[in-house]
Amino acid sequence: MDLLRALPDLPQGCVADLGCGSGAVAAPLRSLFPARQLVGIDASAEMLAKAEGQYDTLVQADITEWAPQETPALIFSNAALQWVPDHVTILPRLVDSLAPGGTLAVQVPHQNNAPSHRMWRVLAEELCGPLPDGLPDVLRPAGYYHLLAPLGALSLWETEYYQILPACDEGNPVRRFTEATYARPILQALTQAEQTRLIDAYEDVIASAYPASEDGSVLFPLRRMFFTVTRQD
């Protein structure tokens, strides 16, 4: 994993997997830091049940409210922070909770400017009016730079991967993929009738941006943003 390879040397302290889900990165973290306490944090009791046995400690907590009981040397968050709003408040608080010389390491999808994601917001606002404040969102790279660079040594980069979205019996593969991920909080903010209008409008435009192969599958570019910030007191 790109983010694991970018980690600097760490001071004393535990390793916190923030938004650990079912424990997808528990084994790599354990391999890198076998002597450290590994703490998994997630808001979902169902996910934590699946992660049982992979961490020394499991904590059920919302990312926006979590505070460590033991000072972490590393807070690692893989594909979780895109589900929560107000990164401007959350990220400085996380950095401040680190041990001196500790690192916050984050990976989030960064598709906001791609048609697959941008058209959900554009069409929602055209058809249904302004979206409510407080929806989860990811900042532009410059936003994270200006927020985090004053807090420590910052590394920030992006990588674009490609995945094949298989053909769907019902609807465009890009629509089905994004409505279950990025668009989920947008759709949840709308009425049922508004959701139907938005989905129909999205279906009308998205195929031109992501042409399907003969078998109906779509080659889908997926951009990921990574950053590490090491606290320097």
TrEMBL record:
Biological-process GO terms, alphabetical: methylation
Protein's UniProt name: Methyltransferase domain-containing protein
Species name: Sagittula salina
UniProt keyword annotations, A-Z: Methyltransferase, Transferase
GO molecular function, one term: trans-aconitate 2-methyltransferase activity
InterPro entries linked: Methyltransf_25, SAM-dependent_MTases_sf, Trans_acon_MeTrfase_C
Residues covered by the Methyltransferase domain: 15-102
